[in-house]
Amino acid sequence: MNDKQKTIATNRKARHDYFIDETYEAGIVLTGTEIKSVRAGRVNLRDSYVQIKNGELWLIDTHIAPYEQAGRGGHHPQRPRKLLMHRREINRLQGKVQEKGYTLIPLRLYLKENKQAKVEIALARGKKLYDKRQAIRKRDTEREMERELLRRSKRL
What we know:
The chain is α+β, with helices and mostly antiparallel strands. The chain has a single domain, classed as Small protein B (Small Protein B, Chain: A), CATH 2.40.280.10. It has helices spanning 12-17, 32-39, 87-100, 129-155, and strands at 6-10, 18-28, 43-44, 49-53, 56-60, 63-64, 81-84, 103-111, 117-126. The strands form two sheets. The protein has a seven-stranded antiparallel beta sheet. A two-stranded antiparallel ribbon has the order 3-6. A hairpin with a 2-residue loop joins strand 4 and strand 5. The chain is globular.
């Protein structure tokens, strides 16, 4: 991660539920009240996904809370939002999603140094239940080893 990026929201559940193969950066089309809510950090990426319709990328089910000072001219919190990528990248992603059983999911939403909102999307494959259990088991054993090392170092 570049130090000139401010992460607004992350999709922590995505790394638990999917194997991440490739990541891409995409711009996002937002209205005025949406970008103000994004800058305030009022975004939730849980259960959201990316869909390809008519050769365009769309971010579906991302919740951007309404901006309080907007009045009646606000936005719908879960409307589909268009993502911006080069045509050849979209075509490549569409081919992989159709033929190999991949899915597109957002990993994080962040602001770049020039205050543009960007979304990091991932080409991912779903994990099976036993894969998730194995990852949890591995994480727990690593935690136990760290605790044991800390305990031993304190005794010395």
